[in-house]
Amino acid sequence: MPKLSHEALVQLVRHAPALIPDLLWPEARPSGPIRISAAEFADLNFAEHRADAVIGLGGALDRPDEALVVEVQVERDLRKRWTWPLYVAGLRTRLNCPVTLVVVALDRDVARWCAEPIDLGRRRNVLRPWVLGPDAVPVITDLDRARELPELAVLSVAAHADEPGAEHIALAALDATRDLDDQRGILYPDFVTALLGRAARIALEKLMATQKRWEPISDLFRKPWLEGIAEGTVLGKAEGIAEGKASLVLKMLQLKGFDLTDEQRQRVLTCRDDALLETWAARILVATRLDEVLTDA
Fold first, then answer.
1. DSSP 3-state assignment of 35?
2. Which long-range contacts does 197-203 make (Cβ < 8 Å, 24+ apart)?
3. How far, in Å, CA of 245 to CA of 162, rounded?
4. pLDDT in tens, 160-199
């Protein structure tokens, strides 16, 4: 099953910071405002480190009552055993409040690795990450709940897409995206459909077809991107499919905030190499610079 990229998961958290305390404390969310704060840290050598997200709980904007350093992990990364303590100590110094490290890891093996205590020296000081694994994410199929918490609905697909009935989780998440602003309303449906395996995607299309109010809202359904075939039926001619992919790649680049030249824009729109278009699209969610996307390699 495909996994939601690191950058996509980080976007969910930044768009809906209340998602994290809701999962940590489902019965009693902390009182007071919940805000995204600056996530940069500097060590003594002036090298900058950036956490995926910092969430302040209660208090003032620059002096919360408590703070969470949120890191998203899609794979093991031994470097994090050294940088995570820096994030906690640096933020605690900057804000003068208690700080907890929270790691979102939807792969069970990665979650177990992230939960291992970090010994800072001779077992006298130990950092214990609070890990939100797939079991911490509820299965959301109720449409009203999904509309109330669209980021949680998308996260539910990411955590449970390989389980029976995933098409019902995906349907609720897609429904929740219908009234969102442009950026989330365009990207979230593609996050959802990219997470589903072929069988679950076909089941979702059948489920949507039985409900007349539905029109496919993701470009992955309108202009098949991942496989081009459902139940043995070609869903578009090759030229039209490639053109649709190119348009979607350009849209994703613009939503990511990349400033394209006219030459780069034309290069994307006129590209008819399916494999290259899909490679570019996969890079967009994790890239920080345009030149990381538009390469032929």
1. strand
2. 197/1, 197/2, 197/161, 197/162, 197/166, 198/226, 198/227, 200/161, 200/166, 200/167, 200/170, 201/167, 201/226, 201/230, 202/230, 202/231, 203/166, 203/167
3. 26
4. 998 999 999 999 999 998 878 767 787 788 788 878 888 8
What digits encode the pLDDT tens for the residues 29-60? 777 889 888 766 555 444 557 888 999 999 98
Q: Which amino acid, 270? A: T
Q: Are strands 40-42 and 48-50 parallel, antiparallel or unpaired?
A: antiparallel
- CA dist., res. 291 & res. 141, Å (int): 39
152: tokens are 């949680």
Domains and CATH numbers, the chain: 6-136 (3.40.1350), 143-292 (no CATH)
> Which parts of the chain register pLDDT below 50?
44-46, 216-237
Its pTM stands at 0.72
Q: Cα separation of 89 and 98, whole Å?
A: 10
Residue with tokens 């009203």: 144
Measured distance CA(80)–CA(103) in Å, rounded: 11
SS (H, E, C) 236-256: CCHHHHHHHHHHHHHHHHHHC
3-state secondary structure of 221: helix
